[in-house]
Write a structure and sequence with these properties.
Number of helices: 4
Number of strands: 0
Order of helices and strands: HHHH
Largest sheet: none
Shape: elongated
Structural class: mainly alpha
Strand content: under 5%
Length: 138
């Protein structure tokens, strides 16, 4: 049964990298509507993946064995993974709030471009790390 998570996680990692690339391209072309839609899909799918990832800990047979010498890697990967996910969620929610209340602009999104430039490499590291995890622990 663990192989399902191996394949699903690897497919998600590749799909997320493609979505990040497409969102970055849309932002560079100033196609902000497409960029926003792609990032919203990426954000919701990432939270869904995290929920499924955590849910598998309820079933001991689905949790891979992590040798003690790799615990630091899992801690680093998990920590770095949550940073762009949480900040991207704040950014998406702030944009939606601005659309609902145009008279109250979000101070959080004043630096949207800077946040994006920092988060893209972190998020890419996360998904490349997910592929590495598939090879290390399954």
């Amino acid at each position: 049964m663990q192989w399902i998570f191996l394949y699903a996680g690897s497919v998600w990692a590749v799909a997320a990298l493609v979505l990040l690339w497409l969102a970055w391209g849309a932002a560079r072309r100033k196609d902000f509507n497409r960029h926003g839609r792609i990032m919203a899909v990426l954000m919701f799918a990432a939270w869904f993946f995290v929920a499924l990832y955590l849910l598998r800990y309820r079933f001991p047979g689905l949790v891979p064995h992590v040798p003690p010498e790799y615990v630091w890697w899992i801690a680093l990967h998990g920590t770095v993974a949550l940073i762009p996910l949480i900040v991207a969620t704040w950014m998406v929610l702030a944009r939606w709030r601005e659309r609902m209340h145009p008279d109250r602009p979000s101070h959080f999104n004043r630096h949207h471009r800077l946040f994006g430039r920092i988060l893209i490499p972190l998020w890419a590291f996360t998904h490349i790390g997910g592929i590495i995890n598939a090879f290390l622990f399954y």
